[in-house]
Each structure stands twice: as structure tokens, then as C-alpha cells.
Design goal:
With 198 residues, this protein is mainly alpha-helical. The chain folds into two domains: 76 residues; 100 residues, no CATH class. It is 73% helix and 0% strand. α1 runs antiparallel to α2 and α2 packs across α3. It starts with 6 loop residues before the first helix and ends with a helix. 24% of the residues are buried. About 10% of the residues have low confidence.
Amino acid sequence: MKTSADPVRDYLAAVEREASALPTDRRQELLADLTEHIEVTRAERPDAAIGEVLAELGDPRMIATTALAEAGNGAAEASARSGVGAPARRGKVHPLVPLLMLTLSLPFMMIFPDLPGPLFGVLFRITGAVLLCTSVHWTAVQKTTGVLLTAVLPTVIIVSWNLSSGGSTGGTPALLANLVATALLAGVAAWLWRVRRA
């Protein structure tokens, strides 16, 4: 593969090639946005290497895939026909949905302690964890950390508490443990919301 002396031109050409299934006007808009972003970044950080700036933008194939996903079904069908990587269905769910499901699973079980409450709480936790893992809004490390802290750790704590002698009785210790677990869930959800990708 030949490369020119201009890495920006090569990068934009790669994006254009990967996004060939996009309508021409949308593809040109994408390239103009990327060009503007590169120019602004270079003006703000003149000491930054151009390779570093391009690496921050991401892989051209991922940019094209995201643009195709945002363009809708028509572009997705065209990309499937043309052989360009079809956009993943992931990311269709708003990032707040898995965070709310994970955070509200424990309070739901506390508010409704009878049979439907724990069942729905567990379903919320499992569904929230699956949606978090399949989302495009977080990196693999962030997803793993989120699932461990919002689904696995609280489940281990609840099961351990229920298997201990004081698990089934209510009272201050159980309420305190539930409040600490709820604070942990809310804290991790707030962190995930803050570090999400747009």
C-alpha cells in the first residue's frame, strides 16, 4: 500500500473509502468535520505530533461504521451490499438505560421485598449488565469495571448477607448495608456516565 507524505490526506482518504456507502453529501460533511477537528486540534496543540492527533480521532473504519450507523437503515443496507463493514446494532439504546437499570435494581428489591420485587431486581441487574456490555459508549475496561461493581459485587454481598445469620432479619445493619450498596451503584453509574463516549 502506497502512502503519501501527508498522513492527514491518507487518513481522510481511508475514512472516505470506508464510508463509501454513505450518501455523497453526508460523506463530504463527515470529511469536513474531521478536517476541521484536525485543524483545531493542531492549532490548540502545535507541539502534538500529527500521528497522535489522528490516533485520538480513532480508526477510519470505526469512524465510518459509526457514521453509517447514524445514517440509518438505508446506508446500512448499502454498506452490506458493498462489502463495507455493516454497522453494529449496538449503541441503539441510550447510555442512561443500562445505568438506571443497574442502579435501580437494588432499591427496587428494597421497596418491594415480596416475591415480584427481588425477581424484577435481578432481571433489572442482568438486563442492565447485558446492555452495558453491548454498548458502544464505553471501552472494554470500563464495561468490565462497571459490571463487576454494579452487578457482580452487589450480588455477592447480598448472597453472603442472606446466607449469614442476620440476612433474613431486617433492622439497622441490613438497611445500612443496602444503603452502602445503593451508594456504590449510584457512584459507579455516575462514573460510567461521566466517562462515556458520545
